[in-house]
Each structure stands twice: as C-alpha cells, then as structure tokens.
Design brief:
3 domains, six-stranded antiparallel beta sheet, TIM Barrel, 14 helices
C-alpha cells in the first residue's frame, strides 16, 4: 500500500548488530553524525509498559540500531516495534536500554497450512519470551499477504492465539489491519478472531495526512469507532488497548521539516487524547522508505526529534488525559496532567491565527525549538504550542473535563442531524457535516461558483463521524452535477460498506447542459474512514471527469 510499510513486510528489526557492537562494552557512537551517543544506555527507570511513546523503524535503519536506539531511549521513548528473528533475546535483554520494550510481529504464513502456522507461532513466542509478550498477527493485512480475505485472517488469528497461549498464558496478541481498515477487522471478528486477541493495531497514515486540512475530528474518531466495532462484535473485548503501531510523514517537496514536526505533535497529542494506549512514529532514523526519520541519514536531528523530546518532557512518560477545549470557540486545545501540573497542547485552524489570553503564571513551550516563554497571551498558529498552566487554572481543567464526554465537534455537533451537506457556494472552512477531502478547484457557471471535478479522476467526501460512523443505517446520497462541455462525463459512486468497498455502478452526467440531480439509496454503509474518507465519485480517469458539482448531501432514511 505504501513504500514506507513495504520495508516492514516481514516485520523485522535487525538488532543483532547491537548485541555484537556491545559484547565488550557500550558503544561510544562513532560515525553517527549528531546523534547523541551515551557511554552506556543510561535512561531513567520507568514502568515502560505504561509509556505510550513509541517508534517503528524501517528495515534498513533497523540494521544499524546502535545509531539511534540509545538517543531514542534517552528522549523517553518507551517502545520499539519489531525485531529480527535472528536476535539472541537473552543478550538483547542484557545489552539494550532497560527502559525500552519491544513488540513483535508474527509474520504472514500460508493460510493453507495451519499446522505449520501454529508451529511457527509456538517457536516465536517461546524463543522471544525474555524480550516480549506482545505480538501483532501479521503486518497490515491484507497488505503483504496476497490480499488474504478477512475471513481467512480471522481463522489465522484464532490459530495463533491458541498456539501462543499453549507456550505462554501471559502472551498478548494484536488484531491488525492496513490503515484504518475496520471493515476488514469487522469481518475477521465474525470469522474466528472473536475473543482471540488482546489489543488492536492500526496505521492511520492517510487520516493523519488530512489533519493539516482541519480534519482533526476525523482523526479523533479512530479509537471511538474501533470501540463501536468491538462493542458490536466482541463486547467482552470492547476496552482492549488500541495501538497506532505506525504513523508518520516524510520531509519532502510537499512537507518541510517544520510540517513533519507539527504533525508529530498533533498525532501523539490526539492519539493519546482519544484513548490510544501507544503511538509509534515511523521512524527514528531515515531508511529505505524515505526521509521519515526523527534523524536524517547523517544522524542530524530534525525538528521532529526536538518536538517529541519536548512533548515527552512536559507530558511525562505516563500522561493523563484531562479533556479538550475550543479556544475562541474554534481552535483545538488538549489538556493533560503532566509531571508539573496541567499542560495544554493547542493550535489554530488552518490558515488562521488567534491571540488567546492565558492565566497568570502560564508558560508557553514551542516544541519545534524547545524554547520556553513566560507569558499571559498565546499567539496561536497552526504550529502547535504547549502551554504549562498554573495549578490554579481550575476553570480550564473543569471545562476540558466536562468536554471529554461530549461529541468532538467539527464545525458543530452533528450527532443528531438527519442530514449533512456540502455546497460549493459555502466557504469550505465552514463546511457543516460533509467535507470534501481534496483541495477544491472552483469554476464559475454564470454567476455561480461550483466545484470543478475535471482536474482529478476521483472526488472524495467524508461525513462527520458524529453523524455516522461504523453503524450501518440506510442512507440517501444526492448530488447536483452538470457537464462542463458536450463531452461525455460520469462516475461510479463508491462507498465503504459492511463487505468492503461497494459501487452502485456507472452514472452518466446528462448531456442537456443543465444541472441534474442524481440520487442513490445505500442500504449497507459502514463508514470507518479506512483512508480518511467514506464515499467517492470515481470517473476512472480524467477523460470522464469533465463535470462540475453544485452540492452533495447525505440523509438518513
């Protein structure tokens, strides 16, 4: 699905070199650029199992973990995802940082040979008992599995569970899926995985990539939607931990280093705020998946490194979520109880700034630089800031706590709305309940501004998760469309359903030069935001997308 995860197709982390390098003593870190090496892995003792801060490395950067594992542990990171099956676990326990814990991946095996699969599971669990009791069942299924159906995956999870528990009753197994593919997980639970797992893992790259557009509510819905699914399919497991075992962003032509660091802070902040028990940033050091690292290939720290270290310093290794605020009724602020008192992580809506008054005695921390400033006013921008609040700021804490149980707003609360709509005549920043995923391209038809679908083959939409998520209720989707020219135009309406992606078939935009209203009844939606959107108009290519959209609406029937 993504180049960055292709490197982890077998879920390995080559730590054997660490043991070899440290067989006669700790490394002093030659040739590691600006990575801060220690004469020993001297890290603070903490109960790492409760530490929610993790990293996940690509295959290539994992071959030289001595370049990054010490500095990463020194930052306060508590978890590393994956390890090499040739690793000697007894030596690893002795040589690796004491504050770091590892989680493993049971690699894909032929579903047609259940005996071999269970033998493999027993061997892995037995061999690595000194190092870990946490195992994900496959990496991002159906990725890297020959597109294995969820029904087969559910049976493989059950077989893995039974084999692992024979070896070690304390072992914990994770139910996994690509991106946020809860349609896949849902069907796996119906096909054998029920009661056979202890945690859930997702990789919300695509959903995280939309945060900069103002899609915080969509990201904040990941764990609540998983809880809905578990409550429906396996209520006894409804409260198992949820881990984001991969999420990240490269530094490239579209995203500079500041953008990467900004997203990192938001991902960890909102991951923890919605109830994720662990978040693993991909990755610690640039590898063969591209420039995703906290450190570049030469070992130079990026602003993302400073941002994560600053976040852990001020939230602490076991942050407690207090709730959320809307600053000036529109900007996001998330409150935590840190080691020194309440900490708010806040940023503005895209393209806006705001001056926010702070309680007397507040200090602002800029995570991209680590600079701390005492002030009573915060110049809020889309780059996140940490506000160290005085303990006397009880009003803020009480308000955040009261909000915690409320629907997370996306330009309002749409949890009770019978209908949500997108209109090209409205400001996209003020969209009410139905959101265009792509950056809009506008054109004028007469005096009217409309959405031009022509530049892209697919136009995607997401509904407010409070309006509908996971639960399958009959819907009517309506679109008002018009050809841009006499040339043929049309699209398939595709949507997330209980059986995966469904299509209602081809819809030709009428050729009469007038606005046409197209409408569809959908009886089996299951909107989970696998890739951050719920339904889309797919023209196959731009040869067929030469049409405009005046409005789209979704109604509960």
């Amino acid at each position: 699905m993504k180049p960055l995860v292709a490197a982890l197709a077998v879920g390995t982390l080559a730590l054997g070199s660490v043991v070899a390098l440290h067989a006669d003593g700790p490394s002093r870190g030659t040739g590691a650029g600006s990575l801060r090496q220690k004469t020993a892995f001297a890290t603070s003792e903490m109960p790492a199992t409760a530490n929610p801060f993790g990293v996940a490395a690509s295959a290539s950067s994992s071959r030289s973990p001595e370049r990054w594992i010490g500095p990463v542990a020194d930052m306060g990171v508590g978890w590393v995802r994956g390890f090499n099956p040739t690793l000697d676990p007894a030596l690893a326990v002795q040589r690796l940082p004491r504050s770091i814990r590892f989680s493993g991946i049971l690699e894909f095996r032929d579903p047609n040979d259940p005996a071999a699969w269970q033998a493999y599971v027993r061997e892995r669990v037995q061999r690595f008992r000194p190092l870990t009791t946490d195992w994900e069942v496959w990496n991002e299924p159906p990725n890297f599995t020959g597109n294995t159906p969820p029904e087969v995956y559910g049976r493989m999870v059950a077989l893995a569970h039974d084999a692992a528990r024979e070896v070690d009753p304390s072992v914990k197994l994770g139910l996994a899926a690509q991106s946020v593919n809860l349609n896949y997980m849902d069907r796996a639970l119906l096909s054998g995985a029920k009661d056979k797992f202890d945690f859930v893992t997702v990789h919300p790259y695509e959903t995280a990539s939309l945060i900069h557009k103002g899609f915080e509510a969509q990201f904040m819905a990941i764990v609540p939607t998983i809880r809905k699914m578990l409550l429906a399919r396996n209520p006894e497991r409804a409260q198992v931990p949820v881990y984001f075992t991969e999420v990240g962003q490269p530094v490239d032509a579209r995203n500079d280093a500041a953008s990467q660091a900004s997203l990192l802070v938001k991902v960890y902040t909102m991951g923890l705020a919605q109830g994720a028990a662990r978040v693993h940033w991909f990755e610690p050091l640039d590898g063969d998946s591209g420039p995703f690292g906290l450190f570049d290939r030469l070992g130079q720290p990026r602003p993302a490194h400073t941002a994560l270290r600053t976040l852990i310093d001020h939230l602490g290794p076991q942050p407690r979520v207090l709730g959320w605020l809307l600053l000036a009724d529109r900007h996001h602020g998330f409150l935590f109880e840190g080691p020194q008192g309440p900490v708010m992580v806040a940023w503005s809506r895209p393209g806006t700034t705001e001056a926010v008054a702070l309680p007397e005695g507040s200090r602002v921390v800029y995570p991209l630089s680590g600079v701390v400033q005492a002030t009573t006013a915060l110049a809020l921008t889309n780059l996140p800031a940490l506000v160290l609040l005085p303990r006397e700021a009880t009003d803020w804490v009480q308000q955040a706590s009261a909000n915690q149980g409320q629907p997370f707003p996306w330009n309002g609360d749409h949890s009770g709305a019978p209908r949500v709509a997108f209109s090209a005549s409205d400001d996209p920043a003020d969209a009410r309940g139905l959101h265009l995923v792509q950056t809009p391209v506008w054109r004028n038809v007469g005096d009217e501004r409309v959405l031009d679908a022509a530049p892209r083959a697919i136009t995607s939409f997401t509904v407010d998760p409070n309006f509908l998520s996971y639960t399958s209720v009959p819907l009517r989707i309506t679109a008002v469309v018009r050809r841009n020219s006499p040339d043929a135009a049309g699209f398939n309406l595709k949507y997330e359903s209980r059986s995966g992606t469904r299509s209602v078939g081809w819809n030709t935009v009428p050729a009469n030069g007038e606005w046409a209203t197209l409408s569809w009844s959908i009886n089996d939606p299951q909107f989970v935001g696998k890739f951050g959107y719920h339904f889309w108009f797919d023209s196959d290519s731009t040869r067929h997308s030469n049409y405009s959209i005046r409005s789209v609406s979704v109604s509960k029937e």
